[in-house]
Amino acid sequence: CIRDRVRSPGEGALKVGRYIVKVLGDDLLIVHEGRATFRVLYEKLLRGEVRGRRLLMPVKVGEVKPEVAAALRRVGFRFEGNRLVEAPDFLRVIDPATVSSLLKGVSGTEGDEALALKVASLLSGSLHLEPEDLILNLMLCNNPYQDPEGRVIVRRITAKELDSLLQ
């Protein structure tokens, strides 16, 4: 099982462009970083595993409709008037443009799955995990092989496939 061998001593993950390459025995695991982040974030949001953290400096935003504020509260955001005062704990930097995109992209009528999909899609570009942590979190997901939109995240290349590539 891949999950059992993801964190093997002495075998780190290597970031190559938008991919992460991990050695697993004689095989290679190639992970699309953006799609993996999207999957991990989507599942965390869907399971309600996101805690909010109070911001030291609130972020001033435009008008926040009450139904949008209520929806975003379910995923770790809290607004007081036109100020963002709390954000999900996984966001280290709060980009006002991303918050603006969230406010425009969320209607407030979404169910949990649709809300998680929209928010994960908008925030996954802002979230950067260490390659080893990302792979570990990905392997703990219900579906580590496809992102929420059905695109391939992971490809395992066996030693035999590598041999045939280099013939």
Characterise this structure.
The chain has helices at residues 2-5, 33-46, 66-73, 96-105, 112-123, 131-139, 159-165; strands spanning 13-16, 19-24, 27-32, 52-60, 78-80, 83-88, 154-157. With 167 residues, it is of the alpha+beta class. The protein contains seven helices and seven strands; from the N terminus they run αβββαβαββαααβα. The strands form two sheets. The protein has a four-stranded antiparallel sheet with strand order 1-2-3-7. It is 38% helix and 23% strand. The model is unreliable at 1-10 (pLDDT under 50).
Shape: elongated
Structural class: alpha+beta
Strand content: 15-25%
In round numbers, the mean pLDDT is 89
Proportion in helices: 25-40%
Order of helix and strand elements from N to C terminus: HEEEHEHEEHHHEH
Spatial separation of the terminal alpha carbons: 29 Å
Number of helical segments with 4 or more residues: 7
Instruction: Indicate the radius of gyration in whole angstroms.
Output: 18 Å
Count of individual beta strands: 7
Strand order of the largest sheet: 1-2-3-7
Major pleated sheet: 4 strands, antiparallel
Unreliable segments of 5+ consecutive residues = 1-10
Write out key terms for the chains shown.
disordered N terminus; single chain; three-stranded antiparallel sheet; 167 residues; four-stranded antiparallel sheet; alpha+beta; 7 helices
Task: Produce the secondary structure layout.
Elements (H helix, E strand, L loop, with lengths): L1 H4 L7 E4 L2 E6 L2 E6 H14 L5 E9 L5 H8 L4 E3 L2 E6 L7 H10 L6 H12 L7 H9 L14 E4 L1 H7 L2
Antiparallel strand pairs: 1-2, 2-3, 3-7, 4-6, 5-6
